[in-house]
Amino acid sequence: MTRLKTAVARILRAGAAVRKATGPAGIATAAAPRQLEELRQKVRALSDRLEGAEQRTGRLLRIERQCARDRAALAAIPRARLLSTSIVLQGSASERLRVRRVRVGEPVERPYSRWVGITRCVATSPDVRELWERLLAFEASCGDDVLRAFPATILDVPGAVASIVEGTLRITPCPRPEQPARVVGIPRCTYDVRTRKIANFGHWLLDHAPQVVALWKVAPHATFLMPQASREFQMATLALMGVDRRQLVPWDGSPIECGRLLAFESDGRAGGGRPLSALMAVRRLLTPAAACPGERGSRRIYVSRRDAPKKRRWIVNEPEVEQLFRRRGFDIIVMRDCPLDEQVRLFREARVVAGLNGAGLTDIVFSAGGTHVMVLLSETLIRWYSRGRRGGWAGDERAGKGQLAVLGDSPRFWAHVAATFEQRCHTFVGGDAMPLDELARFLDDVLAEVERG
Fold this sequence. Notes:
Blueprint: H1 2-21, H2 32-75, E1 87-89, H3 93-96, E2 100-104, E3 108-111, E4 116-121, H4 126-141, E5 146-149, E6 152-157, E7 160-165, E8 168-173, E9 183-186, H5 195-198, H6 201-218, E10 223-226, H7 232-241, E11 248-250, E12 256-258, E13 260-266, H8 276-286, E14 299-303, H9 318-327, E15 331-333, H10 340-348, E16 350-356, E17 372-377, H11 379-385, H12 413-420, E18 424-429, H13 436-452
Parallel strand pairs: 1-8, 4-18, 9-10, 9-13, 10-11, 14-15, 14-16, 16-17, 17-18
Antiparallel strand pairs: 2-6, 3-5, 6-13, 7-8, 7-12
Helix pairs in contact: 1-2, 6-7, 6-8
């Protein structure tokens, strides 16, 4: 519009110059009238364009004002704000208000310290001992001795186009979709997770599988759009829970239209930790009897890390550690050599599960309530946990600054998970070369507690 005004001003100046050139006495050349007429026509044309631009600008301003009113109206509705920063819900307020939020699962509250068993730190490095004491101080300062989680939430959109743009799920409501019969579910791991975590069994079973299960409970016959990097063990896990493999379709994020879209929004975790409510749903599907203490097994299992990448083995003398546990009646299990259905059977039969901190302990999800879990932590592991976002417990300000759920991403990670399943977790912190004498005394003390019932 500014350019149009500038052009009009330029033409008017040119017209004034022509009139001035005719002289005050009215002496004009034969071309002057024609030039003036051409200038008048250009001015009229530009004035028309200017008027049209002003009308379009007015319409845009009215639309923007309406959008602002819509946003204000939407913001005034309780709980209208999305619970995920990785979802963009487009469309007008009236379209967005057609979207329902569905809650799946039940609130979870678990006492914590009741399920924390024998804890022993024999690390010799001063920095590790200090970090461990800091963790225990953080734990004590949380005050409320309860792990909490809320039901998962799913956005239920009656007709939409979905796509993934730079790690964000974009949803555009579509009142009259071309394919009204198509029902599509999208777990968050499809659009908001690193590829390396997709391939990790622990992250899959504890964090991502619960998302698919929640969607499946809302729409059992939907098509579920999965990450392209999905692995066979993920499909096998879902099949074990009853999800038909034909419902699982890899998706590259290109636009897809559906008659009903179910987008996983929030897993209900509070302040960190794991998605406890959705995880309990997975547990009930995989092993219905696991929550019943009367169904406890009798086996002793040690989960070996000898199949782990070299940089993730964490201790240097695991063969000697395995031999120690073998002499105490433990079966040594290498998870890579064990099919999924066999893993489920073994951990259902377990009375005690032991191993170095890692994804191999994830299978306690299959074990009964009352099972004893023994977690070994090396000095290198403690230092690793103290870095970056997972080191919230390691800060200098301890008292009253954190939630107990933060322990779900700390050296107490497995104590957090075990408490959720009402399993007793014992923790041993040693050097990268595990001190076998101290470990043997710890092991005997734990087994004595197990025998006492």
